[in-house]
Design brief:
Blueprint lengths: L1 H11 L7 H8 L20 E6 L2 E6 L10 H16 L5 E6 L10 H6 L28 E5 L2 E3 L1 H6 L4 E5 L3 E3 L13 H9 L1 H10 L3 E2 H7 L4 E3 L4 H13 L3 H17 L3 H28 L9
Parallel strand pairs: 2-3, 3-4, 4-6, 5-7, 6-9
Antiparallel strand pairs: 1-2, 7-8
Helix pairs in contact: 1-3, 6-7, 10-11
Length: about 300
């Protein structure tokens, strides 16, 4: 849906006032989704880097001089990169990271301070992106965040887009925007309570305090804690492991889990959604899997 409406939305969204021509040039600089001849067109700066590794794509925020804070141009490029990922059937997973030593320090408040008129919000969240870009998207395939340095304020919200977060030991996260009167409007108050529970979410939301990787792990916010400098490597390994599984089954179970958490109207409705998604998988993948098991593959829980 995002791809079908992207051209129209990019022209109509009031949130991002860049011209269509500039957007098109920016989009063609996103690396793995373009040809080498396209990449010679000039842009001011490539704020989002993408690179394909087999069936996995990495998406990196490339503003290390600003601790990867997101401005309007970066937000647009992130939307395009994740739209391309989600609609490319040959890709199985994405790894989201920040170039340099930080994941993302949130929205670029310097841009807001210097030109507040440039930020005009669309009230209907179904008609455009969030201020941070892809924060209103729902992906059909796994995304893993490799978190280093600061992942705070809007950067925390972007990390919540991912199915899993791999955090380096020295990484810091938190609702740092609490200090400046900047609200969470990129899904932070929606996703965080679902991931770690209301009580712990309110601890972070109300106090704005920083938490390290170990506490984030105990909260359930971090799924893995790794040595400094290794988040991207470990996230890639995790993406490869997930990509090796039968994909229809994995995506059906993933979709059911998200539906149950965010969209289900009742327990029985959630069960029906789970069954409806799984019955087709039984025909297309499960019979083949049962035959492999009968042949001795995977006995004793071996992966």
């Amino acid at each position: 849906m995002y791809r079908q409406n992207l051209g129209r939305l990019l022209k109509g969204w009031k949130l991002f006032p860049a011209s269509p021509g500039k957007i098109n040039v920016t989009v063609c600089q996103l690396g793995c989704f373009t040809t080498s001849s396209q990449q010679h067109q000039e842009v001011k700066k490539i704020n989002v880097l993408t690179e394909r590794h087999g069936s996995i794509v990495t998406v990196g925020i490339n503003r290390p001089e600003a601790r990867n804070a997101v401005n309007t141009e970066t937000a647009l490029q992130l939307v395009e990169a994740f739209t391309s990922f989600d609609e490319d059937d040959s890709l199985t997973a994405a790894v989201f990271y920040g170039v340099g030593s930080n994941f993302c320090a949130g929205y670029d408040l310097k841009e807001v301070a210097s030109n507040p008129a440039a930020i005009r919000f669309v009230e209907d969240v179904t008609t455009g992106p969030g201020p941070m870009g892809p924060s209103r998207m729902q992906f059909s395939k796994p995304v893993i965040a490799a978190v280093s340095g600061y992942a705070v304020a809007g950067g925390l919200e972007l990390s919540l887009l991912a199915d899993m977060r791999v955090m380096e030991k020295s990484a810091i996260t938190g609702v740092f925007c609490r200090r400046f009167g900047v609200p969470l409007i990129d899904g932070g108050t929606v996703r965080l309570p679902k991931l770690i529970g209301l009580s712990r979410a309110l601890d972070l939301i109300l106090t704005g305090r920083p938490i390290g990787a170990e506490e984030a792990y105990h909260f359930g916010l971090a799924n893995r804690v790794v040595p400094d400098g290794q988040a991207l490597q470990h996230a890639m390994e995790l993406a490869k492991q997930i990509s090796a599984f039968p994909q229809l089954c994995m995506r059906a179970d993933r979709a059911s889990a998200y539906h149950s958490a965010f969209d289900s109207s009742s327990f029985m409705e959630a069960l029906q959604f789970e069954f409806n998604g799984g019955k087709q998988v039984l025909k297309e993948e499960s019979v083949k899997g049962a035959r492999r098991f009968a042949e001795g593959i995977g006995r004793g829980g071996k992966f």
